[in-house]
Amino acid sequence: MPRPNSNDAAIFYHKYINHAQGDSVAEVIANHARQLKEFYNNLPEAKADYAYAPGKWTIKDLLQHVIDAERIFTYRALRIARKDTTPLPGFEENDYAVTANAGSRTLQSLKDEFNAVRTSTDLLFNSFNNDQLNAVGTASNNPITANALAFISYGHLLHHKAIIEERYL
C-alpha cells in the first residue's frame, strides 16, 4: 500500500502525512515506532509542567493531547477499515485539553498511557490488509482513507516532537 495521495485526506492533514517517512504503513512503523517511544519516554520530569509561553500547553498537556489524538485517529481508521460508512465528527483539541486535567497527573502516568496507546496503534495498523487500508470513509466532513490515517497518526506525533524539541527542551 503506497503513501497517501492528495485525494486520500483533506489538505490540512498533509502536513502530518509529510512528516511520516516511508512508502507504506509498515515502513512508517518501522521507521518511527521505536524513535517516538524513546523520545516521549525521555521527556524530563523537570519540564513536566513547563509551558514555553503564557497560555500554551505544558509538556503534560501536550502528551495528553497526542494520546487523545492518536486514539481518535485510530478509532477513525478502525471504523473505516471495517467498512463503516457512518460519517465521523471532528474534535476540538483545545476543548479536550481543558477537560483532560493532565496537570493533575504524573508525567510517568502519562508516559505509561502513551506506551499502551502506541503499542495498540502499531498492532492495529499492522493488522490491516491493503483492502482495509484503501477503505474510504468520512471524518470531519472530508473523505479519508485508513491508510492516510496511519500516516497522519505517526506524522502528528512527529510534528509535536519537533515542537517539543524547538520550544520546550
Tell me what you see in this structure.
The protein is mainly alpha-helical and about 170 residues long. It has a single domain (about 15-50, about 55-165), classed as dinb family like domain (Four Helix Bundle (Hemerythrin (Met), subunit A), Up-down Bundle), CATH 1.20.120.450. It has helices at about 15, 25-40, 60-80, 95-100, 105-125, 130-135, 145-165; strands spanning about 135-140, 140-145. Strands 1-2 form a two-stranded antiparallel ribbon. α2 (about 25-40) runs antiparallel to α5, α3 (about 60-80) packs across α4 (about 95-100) and α3 (about 60-80) runs parallel beside α5 (about 105-125). The model has no long low-confidence stretch (mean pLDDT about 95).
Largest sheet: 2 strands, antiparallel
| Fraction of residues in H or I helices | 55-70%
CATH architecture verdict? Up-down Bundle
The largest beta-sheet arranges its strands as: 1-2
Mean pLDDT: 97
- CATH H level, superfamily name: dinb family like domain
Uncertain runs with pLDDT below 50, 5 residues or more?
Answer: none
* Count of discrete alpha- or pi-helical segments spanning 4 or more residues: 7
Q: Which class best fits the helix and strand makeup?
A: mainly alpha
Number of β-strand runs: 2
Distance between the termini: 36 Å
Please report which band the strand proportion falls in: under 5%, 5-15%, 15-25%, 25-35%, 35-45% or over 45%: under 5%
Q: Number of domains in the coordinates?
A: 1
Here the CATH topology equals Four Helix Bundle (Hemerythrin (Met), subunit A)
> How big is the Rg?
16 Å
Q: Please write the CATH class name.
A: Mainly Alpha
Any idea what the shape is? globular
SSE topology string:
HHHHHHEEH
